[in-house]
Amino acid sequence: MDLNHYKNKIQEFADNRNWEQYHTPKNLAMALSGEVGELTEIFQWLSQEESQNLTDKDIQSAKEEIADIFIYLLRISDKLGIDVEDAVNEKLEINAKKYPVELAKDNAVKYSKR
What pTM does this model have? Predict the structure, then answer.
């Protein structure tokens, strides 16, 4: 996936609507949080089993919310000058140290609770 392609498309979308003035890191973080809330709402009252067997309508809703989340995530990372690919790679390295296989395998306990 070419993240720069999508960052450029998102920038063009915002530019065409003169939304740059609204796309501050604070506003984008708040919008991102709202979209995560909308994704969460799809699952809110479902059982574990129901959450793994969504209706076609719920799958479509989840798809749209995930896209919104991705768009806002790319937009805020662009505004902050964060390379998402580098950030993910760095975080995977950090997580590998926090959750070594020998301690984390078959275990959902947070590293700070061990």
Answer: 0.89
